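User: quick one, fold this
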Amino acid sequence: MSTDVVARLAAANPVPTGVVVHEPAPLPVPRGRLALALALAAAIAVPAVAFAGRLDDLLGISNGGTTISTSDVLPGHPLLDQAMQELNVGGTMQYLGTLDGVAFYATRNADGDFCLAINHVDENYDKGFGCDLNSDNFPSPDVQVFTFPPAGMLEGVAADGVATVEALDANGNVLASTTVTNNLFVSGQRLPAGSVAYIQSLDASGNVLSRQPVPPLSSLTPPPSAP
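Assistant:
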């Protein structure tokens, strides 16, 4: 991503560019690798992969989804539409399904980064979009979960073989836990901002597959604009 694009996204969004992009809500309430306001989008990122012919090969999960136009993913939210353009998302995304009132869409952008959009279909502001731009990757042995967000509400996409996703505090206590359905998960429990230290994934037998550290909220706050 060019420096100009990074600067424009940083100016438009009160979150770290390249990690999270969200549509601001009236009277935003801080919450928190993905959360900062009532209407937010988060992301953890992925390197380029070999694009095979099947959609599940494209996304790296069994749920290949249904192809829809990108313009139909989050209509009426220009900031998120602009973010998709800035992050080189093409003309289509894969609709992965709706779980507990949350619709999920995924694709890989022109650089091969895994991108995810969510839409709380019955709410005006819990909608978001982001691309994983980090050097680690989803899905991989160490990164089994792509979550929106780890503080706020536990929701996102899990790798094949993940049966349960948990949010843990710094002492390893479980703050929230939710099952995975067709690679998707949603917990209706709201979590205090900054309370989640790890996102943990488990298989159907309860074995831990991965424990992903969550950066502190302070690391997600962009520097102030120059006067």
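User: anything notable?
Assistant: The chain has one domain: 3-215.
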